[in-house]
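Internal QA ticket QA-208
Title: Verify multi-chain structure generation after dependency bump
Assignee: T.L.

Test input:
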Amino acid sequence: MSLRLFPELPLLRRELTELAARRRTWVLRSLAGLLLIGLASWSVVRVLYSVIGMMSAPIDFPLQALGIGAEIFPHMALLLFYAVQLLMPSLICGSITIEKERNTLGTLFVTRLSPLTIVLEKLGSRILPMLTFIILTFPVLAWVYTLGGIDHRLLLATLWFLIWECVLYASIGLVCSAWYSTTVGAFIASYVLTGVLYTLTTVVRLRLPLPFPIWQELIDRLSNQPVFAGFGGAGGMNAVEGLSHLFWAVWPAALASAVLILLARRFLVTRAEVSRSSILLKVFRALDSFFRDVNQWTTGGRMVLQERSTLPDCDPVAWRERSKKSLGKPHYLLRLLLVLQFPVLFVCVLAYTSNSIDGVLPLLWLLWIITAMVIVVKAATLISSERTRETLDALLSTPITNAEVLRQKISGMRRMLVMLSIPILTVHFSRILRQGNLSLYSRQMMVDQVSWLAAYFVLSLLSTWVLMQLIAWFALRLGARASTQARSFLITLVALGLWFAASAIVLPVGISLFAHFTDSGARYQDMDDFFNDGLFQRGDPLMGNVWSVAADVPGQALLLACRPDGSIIATQILMRTSTEVWNTRRTSVGLYVLRSRYTASESLLLLILVTGMQWGFYRLLRRHTCRRSARLLGRVDESVLQSQGVA
Amino acid sequence: MSQPSETNSDSAVAAINPREMAISLRNLRVTYGRFEAVKGISLDIPHGEVFGFIGPNGAGKSSTFRVLATLQPKFQGQALICGLDVLRQAQKVRDVMGFVPDFFGVYEDLTSLEYLHFFAAAYRIPTEKRKSTIDDVLTLTEMTHKAHSQVDSLSRGMKQRLALARVLLHDPKVLLLDEPSSGLDPRARIEMRELLKALRELGKTILISSHILSELSQLCTRIGIIELGQLVAQGSLDDIYRRLQVMRVVHVRVENANPELFQRVQRIPGVESVEQQVDRWAIRLHEDQLTIADLHQSLVDVKARLTMFQPEAMDMETAFMKLTEGKTT
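Actual output:
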């Protein structure tokens, strides 16, 4: 028997080999690496130019830029910390659940690997790839380091904290993975916990002994400029006071991680055979039970909506979605609606009585996030759930056409979409009531106001419906080819995030660059001018130039229509503008990134155009998805062959 | 030992009009990336025939089934069902064909009756005819008493019956059954076999794959043996046995065994070889030159005092083992 210096770590080796063998690992790694490097470079350029812009004299000698690394470094460090929080849960949430889904956890238990070893090796197998992501940004870090102003101890301390950040968030994800039976459940729980931790430590600034102080300290240090900025200059030595300080600074995170790892070890064993019941189903069952009890207690068990047993007529796929799925049955949907509607009404009444016109705005965004998530979960898994349950082949051997299968699947979601739209429309309606009450000054004003509010409500109804359909078809299109529900859900979620990022960041930057190199940007004499005047000095770093380029309503409508949240923003613009209609003056709409001035009719036109364009996108997407349905479902379609000229 | 296919000759194939066949495959090739799952299978199954498809796991059976069930958009060659091209006339093919895959995924939220109504609607059976059609198939598959049971609660045997009931709803001419007996207990298997016999009596053309070879021998009029994506043999059971029996092995035990007698036996015309084993001789003979009875007579003639004379049993399992080499992908 030979003594090994390092343990063999077979599971870690297997996991890393498996990860390395998957093509998607490399695709994702490349994408994440490019994104990180891109964001880091962007951060560097942004800070560099803003610092230069603040200097009294223009830089004409490169050595004058020396020392501004200290200005740039905190931004980059923050970016890396956020990257860890964003990526780590998705990396680790499937580490144990995948063993449960493949029924291979039992095989691991009968080996000589102890549960703690399994947990630790799983942890290592996900932390190492995360560290590789961080390493990808080293070239940018190195360049920033060469600009000067960064003490090497600060650099090392940041890396030290980053490693512990990885361990802490990996431990959170690992506990979720050990607890849940499915990757989707673990994924959602990991991000919810991460969000809770973020909210408690950053937004609420809650100070608790464990596990938050380390995180709090890091954020405080990184976000408070003097700590880092001063470090490169005189008197910054108090930021890192040596090795002992570094060691003691991370002990809460280390302790919290240790506790979480031990919990994960415990759940690994106790919840190894947990049944794969849907979380949604559990929620529904609990709600069902609660409402049944309430109904029994209040009315003696009378039912408003009696569930009748029906049989399919000519649309069997839609029938099954409507009458046999939890999110299709009217009484379930009604109960879910009640759960959503009560808090919505409460907040709306609160906003109404407190004269806060924008009080319901965060609620509207929250409702949209919930709505989008529910639609994505449902629509993305419509086909993959058939595939997972091995029912798709039987369905596809019938004469229903491919496009018809997809159309009926979405059609089966209609009730759910109606239910989800009610709280959103309630928020819109409450704003109408609020504004209606504000301005009953004259008959003419009332007529104006009523017509505007009616237009607002009709357009918000239309835009809500169009956006829901757009998201549903988007999710169906992306999720249809995936082999598992977890994969289809994750693919769609990532794609939705990319869509948002692309439309909110890439498109404006692209337009700004386009403006610079065309006539509209010709006023910029050089790149400094472009960055300082064109891109950054318009109140908003990204959008400033965009609105000057696309100042007309159709141009801005196109920009908004490209965003998944475009119609929501356009609805807000209309509401803001409509408040000014009866005051008969033009208004400045300052919602989010918008800098342009609109008249009421312009804002109305804007919403019509955005809704119309998104309807067009939805129809195009639907048409394209139906055309590609054979490929999505993996089935012969003679119409496709005929269109390709195969006679 | 692998034997080359003889029934798959070009001349035999050319003589048959594929449009008149219930199922016809010509040089079918299915590839997944670089992997070739099916390597040029040609096959003709006339109407009313029960054709057994035998092969080890990964041999290409399910890929062939998927092509015929219009679930495999990419393949080379020609595949016809009742004269209809599965690529260009896929919708029509789905009307004349019923497919039971090798797994039975359930719509766990439906009862058996709802399940059948679901597929009756999918097969576009007129609403007024659905009830009687469903009653008929439930009776045929002896599932009437389970009509209101949740599909999820049915035993595997019952689920397979329900799957058969499903594909009978639109009264297809051709049934594609991919391992319908897989995972069934002995009773359910026997019941399934009887049900398939009943379907055969109804004149359905059935293409069935199974690992349980004895079952196929009782049910099939012809069989095809597939290995590594190629048909190594096809024909009636008698054809295949006869072809395999060309090199038959007979085990004998001789009381007066000696080297001289051993040589005399080797010299009997039609004997290919004699292998001396621990307690017996294994005589390999060309059965077309020397029958089993003639060998017995010849042994007596060379003064061999026989205490055991045992021709090697030739059943479907032996045939399968002889024709295939157990290669899997």
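Spot checks passed. Chain B touches chain A through 39 residues (CB under 8 Å).
Status: verified.
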